[in-house]
Write a structure and sequence with these properties.
The protein has 12 helices and 8 strands. α2 packs parallel to α3 and α4 packs parallel to α5 (94-104). By secondary structure, the chain is α/β, with parallel strands linked by helices. It has a single domain, classed as Phosphoenolpyruvate-binding domains (TIM Barrel). α11 links the parallel β7 and β8 (226-231). The mean pLDDT is 96.
């Protein structure tokens, strides 16, 4: 799926925290528009991330990497490994958003250093990649703190910030109401986020952590367009428990 298709339509992705290529292959075959290799809350190495990126891309799905932090060195390495874009946690200010974009783009747009790796087909396709990265790399900021909500217009107005995803657990935590997704303060923050995103024309959405199709549908009906639906370990866990629940009761 092209960058335009991802950002101008409803797109649904998911998180990968298990480092086996089969996980990426199964999820890519399931019909997700994009998949994010998660380096923030997993033990996945850069080497394993490259293998997962390769599988996702070869299956025709857009590969992202969710970083462990807004780190230029890590951004450079995952982009060179072939990621089409990055999802950056805890972007709380306009300055932090500018740093992220700069780390993804080569000069003169950004500050990413030049190198030859998988993304450039190990050197043979450098010129084409140089042109591709100008307009096709994707920067997704995670809005996970009330400080980010308060500076949201500044964050989303940064040229090169393409989309946002709300991290609901961390956002409620920053409000002092961890996990209370029906609390008026959280709902007010979500309304504010959607309002600013819509005003600036930036695609955005929510991470629906539990794999509940009803929650996914409600999220889309609420106006979210760039949606993360659960993650590999929650999908696996819920599927196993659901399948066994009634059988266990018969023992």
């Amino acid at each position: 799926m092209s960058k335009s298709e991802l950002l101008n339509n409803i797109s649904i992705g998911s998180w990968i925290t298990l480092g086996h290529p089969a996980v990426a292959e199964i999820m890519a075959e399931a019909g997700f528009d994009w998949l994010a290799v998660d380096l923030e809350h997993s033990t996945i190495t850069i080497r394993e991330a490259e293998d997962l990126i390769r599988v996702i891309e070869l299956k025709g799905v857009t590969p992202f990497v969710r970083l462990s932090s807004n780190n230029a060195e890590q951004i450079k390495r995952v982009m060179d490994a072939g990621a089409h874009g990055v999802i950056i946690p805890m972007v709380n200010s306009k300055t932090e958003a500018e740093t992220a974009v700069s780390s993804v783009k080569y000069p003169p747009i950004g500050t990413r250093s030049f190198g030859l790796a998988r993304a450039q087909k190990y050197g043979v396709d450098f010129d084409n990649y140089l042109e591709w990265q100008r307009n096709n790399t994707i920067v997704v900021v995670q809005i996970e703190h009330i400080d980010a909500v308060n500076d949201l217009a500044g964050i989303l107005s940064v040229e090169g910030v393409d989309a946002y995803i709300v991290g609901p657990y961390d956002l409620t935590g920053s409000l002092g109401i961890p996990g209370q997704f029906d609390h008026p303060e959280f709902l007010s923050a979500m309304d504010r986020i959607r309002e600013v995103g819509n005003d600036l024309g930036v695609a955005g959405g929510l991470h629906v952590v539990e794999p509940d199709p009803r929650e996914l549908e409600a999220c889309i009906r609420a106006g979210n367009r760039f949606v993360a639906y659960s993650l590999d370990i929650r999908i696996l866990d819920v599927s196993c428990r659901t399948g066994l629940r009634h059988v266990i009761e018969l023992r």
